[in-house]
Design goal:
The chain is α+β, with helices and mostly antiparallel strands and 102 residues long. It folds into two domains: 18-67, no CATH class; 75-102, no CATH class. The chain is built from four helices and four strands. It has a two-stranded antiparallel sheet with strand order 1-2.
């Protein structure tokens, strides 16, 4: 996100707690991103990562939960572009993966 103040552009960075970047933080990280744990659970259920009880991860959810935030971002970018995982690097401030200069 960029803010323009009197002709000057400043980059704003999301403040994500470092403990939410690791593995096993799928629900907590999404809850911090959307601002509500209940909403995060609904999103994960809709994606098929969480069962209808809202507590049990599905096989797909277990796979995603075993990935770190960087692993998930790189996986999303690789699936979207069809390029190999090792073609990307992770930006923790934007939670995105960008192509390396190859």
């Amino acid at each position: 996100m960029s803010l323009v103040l009197e002709g000057v552009t400043k980059k704003c960075r999301m403040s994500i707690k470092k403990d939410l970047l690791g593995k096993g933080q799928l629900i907590n990280r999404l809850a911090s991103q959307v601002g509500d744990r209940k909403k995060a659970i609904e999103i994960l259920q809709k994606r098929g990562h969480l069962s209808s009880d809202g507590k049990t991860l599905t096989a797909k959810g277990i796979e995603r939960d075993s990935m770190s935030a960087s692993d998930r971002a790189i996986d999303r970018a690789a699936k979207r572009t069809g390029k190999p995982l090792n073609y990307f690097y992770y930006n923790q401030f934007t939670n995105t993966a960008k192509l390396l200069n190859k």
